[in-house]
Design goal:
It is a single chain. By secondary structure, the chain is an alpha+beta fold. It has 2 domains: about 70 residues, SH3 type barrels (Roll), CATH 2.30.30; about 150 residues, no CATH class. It is built from 6 helices and 6 strands; from the N terminus they run ββββββαααααα. It has a 6-stranded mixed sheet with strand order 4-3-2-1-6-5, with no helix packed on it.
Length: about 300
């Protein structure tokens, strides 16, 4: 099954030669119709191209979905254009994030500026994720349509085979019908294969995007750790004197009861008794003239 190669330099521009009456084919070479005119916006830009599709009538195709190749216009499916745009924009964003991580890892002083730029690219990835979800839904819907078409072709070919086996048509007619049907199935299988390939690329790029975000967190953490462990910061930390902890006052045991205050008279009597006991123990001065009177009074 041959597919018409598409080259970027053949995309039509606004000043392209007239495309009126040119034929339009799909990517697999199937004729779709002839151009009968274009619909333009108020500023003159082409919006859609009208095709004469025979009994199907007029069909309007967005101008961006047509590529000029020689004297023929090639119709590009919308899902393919959107998927290619998504892969291109997301791939560029991931490459820029990779470059940003390299700058941060080499120079930690660029971290504040890198944070601002990272938020910009992060917002871009979020918007691309929303677009990616819509494209995935379109691809899944297109696969379902292709499956239904393939079933219809096989059912139709089976009916033709019954006609050949019942001698309603010749074997040559059946062979021609089978050849054309197989060509249609080949085109369907080729488109399905292309869709599966794009789905895989989108999935792989999503994983790469998640990995880039996680890598960014690790780089910032490593940068913060290296900044905290810098020599200047370490010297400041060790040069600071250690604070002295206050010594807790020694308190009396809780079970010790306070003694009641003593009367002054009792204190003086106690003092006299102490002195007398001291004198009686042999420490009394014998030359004191009043020692005898004190003894007698006691």
């Amino acid at each position: 099954m041959s597919v018409i190669p598409i080259q970027k330099q053949w995309v039509m521009a606004e000043n392209s030669p007239s495309i009126i009456s040119k034929g339009v084919k799909d990517m697999y070479g199937t004729f779709m119709g002839n151009v009968i005119g274009t619909a333009t916006d108020i500023d003159g830009t082409i919006q859609t191209v009208g095709l004469d599709c025979g009994s199907e009538g007029l069909r309007q195709i967005p101008y961006e979905q047509l590529v000029l190749q020689g004297d023929v216009l090639i119709f590009i499916p919308n899902w393919r254009i959107e998927a290619q745009r998504l892969l291109r924009e997301k791939g560029l964003t991931i490459r820029r994030l990779t470059a940003l991580m390299g700058i941060v890892s080499d120079n930690s002083e660029m971290k504040p500026d890198a944070e601002l730029i990272h938020e910009k690219y992060k917002s871009k990835l979020i918007s691309l994720d929303e677009t990616e979800a819509k494209i995935k839904a379109k691809l899944a819907t297109r696969l379902e349509e292709l499956e239904e078409q393939e079933k219809a072709i096989k059912f139709f070919l089976f009916d033709v085979q019954i006609q050949a086996n019942s001698n309603e048509i010749s074997q040559t007619t059946f062979d021609d019908a089978q050849k054309l049907s197989n060509n249609m199935v080949d085109r369907i299988n080729h488109e399905k294969s292309e869709i599966h390939n794009i789905q895989k690329r989108i999935h792989d790029m999503s994983l790469e995007s998640i990995e880039m975000i996680e890598t960014k967190k690790d780089v910032i953490q490593q940068t913060a750790v290296s900044y905290m462990n810098s020599p200047c910061d370490t010297v400041l930390t060790h040069s600071m004197p250690e604070p002295e902890l206050p010594v807790a006052p020694q308190c009396e045991p809780e079970n010790t009861l306070p003694e009641p205050p003593e009367d002054e008279s009792e204190l003086s009597t106690t003092s006299s008794e102490t002195e007398t006991e001291t004198d009686s123990s042999g420490n009394v001065d014998p030359e004191d003239p009043d020692w005898l009177s004190r003894m007698q009074s006691q």
